[in-house]
Amino acid sequence: MASPFSFIPRSLAKSKGKTTQTVPKPSTSTTVLRPNVNHPSMSGSNTAKAKYSNEDFTNLINLALSDYALWADPDLRRLVDCSNRPDSSEEADDGFVPLSHLLRRSVTLKPLNLTNFEIPIAKAVRLDGSSVVEVRLLVSDPSSSGWSSKRDNARDIGAYEIRLKNIDSASPRPSQKYTKQDWEERTVYVSIQENIPASYRSMSATLNFVNALLEERGASEPTSSRVQGIIFPPHHQDKPGDAPTCKGFALVVLGDRLDVDFLLNKWPWNRQLGAQHESELSTEVNEATKFGFRAIPKSRWTKLRDEYLAHRERLIAEINAHQDAEP
Fold first, then answer.
1. What φ, ψ does residue 98 adopt, rounded to 5°?
2. In which order are the strands placed within the sheet that holds 187-191?
3. Which residues contact 83 (CB under 8 A, 6 or more apart)?
4. In whole angstroms, how far apart are CA 209 and each of 35, 62, 259, 273, 288?
5. How far is CA 247 from CA 73, 75, 184, 223, 244, in A?
6. CB atoms < 10 A from the CB of 260, how many?
7. Cα–Cα distance for residue pair 151/146, rounded to 1 Å
């Protein structure tokens, strides 16, 4: 068996009684191609009661419109592309799309049920000069605009529109041309050995945490676009249909391959904790050191996960066979 990883159960206890318990086979499908997020404090009807800061809103919007998110969500990508490309009868919308549409349809934002937060989200984006997006208020419905095909209903009239900054179709960013293999190579599995503090277990906090660790490397790339996606893989104990939540580990998609190399070299999977003077380190680095932060390439994590699932299946089969053999 390969080296242990964070989500392996500490024990597989033999259940009492003679009745054979059939354990459903866990899914081995990967989740990196479709971002699916969920705030750890939210589930079901209490989602709307969750509290967000301006920074949380900005982080989530940046992730929802990142190059990785647009690549992984074809419907959203088509909407953004159409808003920049006029046809023979309509003018382009200068790259703006309805914020309400993004909140209801984005693969990243839809699970969070943020449709009632449109105004505070717009305010948060306007206040954050580092955001990769900008917003404007549409005060009237154009009579012959392409908006008619993008709006879900009349409530969108007078709503906010949002777009990426510095859109230049003639000079696309390198990440806009990335393939599936490119994104796979820029995805790392990070873990804090299931002891990650609650303050870091949200989508926004995880993004801030990783960005803080990357600051040691330094780069010309804006902080708001270094992390392109965050995915909380489902746990084997999750029920069908459960929205994944942070359980101390995540898949982090980065835009720069150098950032990937930095995390893997600075926080290797089998790293030895050396003596460090905490006063010389940032809060996030101290926390990462204290709680055992580590990272491996997604390809390596996938292999370890498959080995673990096969091992778990063997143990379950042995337990069930032993129960069946009992008189």
1. -65, 130
2. 227-231, 249-254, 187-191, 294-297
3. 92, 93, 94, 95, 96, 97, 146, 150, 163
4. 18, 15, 14, 19, 9
5. 25, 29, 22, 25, 9
6. 20
7. 9
Residue 321 CB partners (closer than 8 Å, separation 6+): none
pLDDT in tens, 2-33: 444 444 444 444 444 444 444 444 444 433 34
Residue 281 and residue 314: Cα distance in Å, rounded?
Answer: 44
150-203 per-position pLDDT tens digit: 555 444 455 899 988 866 555 677 788 899 999 999 999 998 765 556 677 888
CB 150 within 8 A of CB 98: yes
Assigned token pair, 106: 């984005």
Which residues, including other chains, have CB under 8 Å from residue 320's CB and lie 6 or more apart? 20, 21, 22, 23
> Partners of 13 in the beta sheet?
none
Q: Which residue has tokens 């490309």?
A: 85
Which residue type is seen at 44? G
pTM above 0.90, yes or no: no
Q: What is the mean pLDDT of residues 143-156?
A: 47
Percent of the residues in the chain that have a pLDDT greater than 90, as a whole number: 31
Quote the Cα angle for 224-97-148, to 5°: 175
Dig out the tokens for 147 from the structure.
């908006």
Spatial contact of 253 and 32, defined as CB atoms under 8 Å apart: yes
Report how far residue 196's alpha carbon sits from residue 248's, in angstroms, rounded to the nearest whole number. Answer: 5
User: Which residues, other chains included, contact 23 with Cβ-Cβ below 8 Å and sequence gap of 6+?
Assistant: 316, 320
